[in-house]
């Protein structure tokens, strides 16, 4: 199986040296895994998951560190420096991720957080990124159904809500009235398709629409209590932020679900906790 630069790969140890081990990277030859990343007890013939990239000397190298984003993925990262080459972003590796000036939608300044897409420059084998993500999204017609769950990355805040990348394929909008709790640029969340407009634009919600979101929550609450000794430190009087951190729903939705469980005599409500009936 070919080894992919800029991705996690499972590679086999073929040589041991004082300064590390060499891994069989198939078409890329043998790649060094420096000693500081070699797990105790690793031997020739063993396999392990590593990330393959170019070091500061532009030599292929492996690491067991997992970056915040890999080639072919979108993410929101913070710029840690800017020089005459471009902007450099923290992606969790010793060598920062470069966004050349030619790949900046707007001029990046140190400390800013930007949505970006990571790709491999096949001429140099260098891993770079671009903030010009619009051209990479909305390239075909969305085929989602209302209520379908999707993965989103929260982008820029606008006058009406937040622009979000949906499933690494589309732009969508999460309106302020559909936000539950606090969200920040770069957050990776589960969301639901609220509506697809006639012009193809997609509206999002952090909760399922209609009563379906309540019925789904019933099982979550019961599962939570079963895994926590038949209790949970939440009631219909709990703070909205506490409820959202636990179940990712609004207090109103939580109260409806808790009320349904109480009506069905499945739970006992007290001042500071809810108990599952045996």
Automatic annotation (TrEMBL):
Domain S1 motif residues, every copy: 4-65, 70-132, 145-207
Domain of life: Bacteria
An annotated Gene Ontology molecular function: nucleic acid binding
Protein family membership: Belongs to the CvfB family.
Stated name of the protein: S1 motif domain-containing protein
Species: Marinomonas aquimarina
């Amino acid at each position: 199986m070919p080894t992919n630069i800029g991705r996690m790969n499972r590679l086999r140890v073929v040589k041991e040296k004082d300064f590390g081990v060499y891994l069989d990277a198939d078409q890329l030859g043998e790649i060094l895994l420096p000693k500081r990343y070699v797990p105790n007890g690793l031997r020739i013939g063993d396999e392990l998951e590593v990330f393959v990239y170019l070091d500061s000397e532009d030599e292929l190298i492996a690491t067991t560190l997992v970056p915040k984003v890999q080639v072919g993925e979108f993410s929101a990262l913070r710029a840690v420096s800017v020089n005459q080459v471009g902007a450099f972003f923290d992606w969790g590796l010793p060598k920062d991720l470069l966004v050349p000036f030619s790949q900046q939608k707007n001029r990046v300044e140190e400390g800013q957080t930007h949505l970006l897409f990571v790709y491999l420059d096949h001429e140099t084998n260098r891993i770079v990124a671009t903030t010009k993500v619009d051209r990479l999204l909305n390239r075909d017609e969305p085929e989602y159904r209302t209520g379908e769950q999707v993965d989103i990355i929260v982008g820029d805040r606008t006058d009406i809500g937040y622009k979000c990348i949906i499933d690494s394929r589309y732009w969508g909008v999460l309106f302020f009235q559909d936000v539950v709790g606090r969200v920040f640029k770069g957050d990776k969340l589960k969301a639901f398709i609220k509506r697809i407009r006639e012009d193809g634009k997609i509206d999002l919600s952090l909760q399922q629409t209609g009563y379906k979101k309540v019925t789904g929550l019933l099982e979550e609450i019961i599962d939570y209590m079963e895994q926590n000794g038949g209790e949970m430190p939440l009631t219909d009087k709990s703070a909205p932020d506490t409820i959202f951190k636990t179940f990712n729903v609004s207090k109103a939705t939580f109260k409806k679900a808790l009320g349904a469980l109480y009506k069905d005599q499945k739970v006992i409500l007290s001042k500071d906790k809810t108990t599952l009936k045996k």
